[in-house]
């Protein structure tokens, strides 16, 4: 494992434990060269998930792309990076449980909204406004009304 600080290619594992969800192994490593510590995660390699976009094009599922969308929605909100990572982990696990190799971007958005709703309502509305592409104020208000009724 290459050290992110000095680039040296050898390190030792000083601590290893499963993450809270049990899906990954978290490893604390120490570089043999600079003695700095860093964290890595070990996950089971799975078959790539293909996302079918609105224009019918296909691309591999990209955690970073979903993270960027969530970060924009959660900007200036009391949502931590760990909370965002947790949502992405849950969405990815949900996709894997379907056992489908391809999934529509609409389904990915639905799953994301489902988990985001309970984390932060403002972030939920922000993400929904991009994902659902509200055409006018009435469709936006309709979504807000649904959110209020669920409370």
Quick structural overview:
The protein has 151 residues and is of the alpha+beta class. It has helices at residues 63-73, 81-97, 105-116, 121-131, 137-149; strands at residues 11-18, 24-31, 37-43, 50-52, 58-60, 102-104. Helices cover 42% and strands 21% of the residues.
Q: What is the strand and helix layout of this fold?
A:
Layout: E1 11-18, E2 24-31, E3 37-43, E4 50-52, E5 58-60, H1 63-73, H2 81-97, E6 102-104, H3 105-116, H4 121-131, H5 137-149
Parallel strand pairs: 4-6
Antiparallel strand pairs: 1-2, 2-3, 4-5
Helix pairs in contact: 1-2, 1-4, 2-3, 3-4, 4-5
| H/E element order | EEEEEHHEHHH
Give the number of DSSP strands: 6
Largest sheet at a glance?
3 strands, antiparallel
| Rg calc | 19 Å
The number of helical segments is 5
Counting helices, strands and paired strands, the structural category is: alpha+beta
Helix content: 40-55%
Average pLDDT over all residues: 88
- Tell me the overall shape: elongated
Through-space gap between termini: 47 Å
In which order are the strands of the major sheet placed? 1-2-3
In terms of DSSP E residues, the strand content is 15-25%
Oligomer: single chain
Poorly predicted sequence stretches spanning 5 or more consecutive residues = none
In the residues, how many domains can be counted?
A: 2
């Amino acid at each position: 494992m290459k050290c992110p600080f000095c680039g040296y290619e050898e390190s030792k594992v000083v601590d290893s434990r499963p993450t809270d969800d049990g899906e990954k192994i978290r490893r604390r490593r120490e570089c043999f060269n600079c003695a700095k510590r860093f964290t890595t995660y070990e996950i089971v390699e799975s078959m790539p998930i293909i996302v079918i976009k609105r224009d019918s094009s296909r691309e591999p599922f990209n955690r970073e792309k979903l993270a960027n969308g969530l970060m924009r929605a959660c900007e200036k909100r009391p949502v931590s990076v760990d909370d965002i990572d947790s949502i992405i982990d849950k969405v990815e696990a949900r996709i894997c449980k379907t056992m489908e190799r391809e999934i529509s971007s609409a389904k990915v958005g639905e799953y994301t909204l489902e988990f985001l709703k309970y984390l932060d309502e403002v972030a939920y509305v922000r993400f929904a406004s991009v994902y659902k592409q509200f055409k006018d104020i009435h469709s936006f208000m309709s979504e807000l009304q649904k959110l209020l009724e669920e409370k």
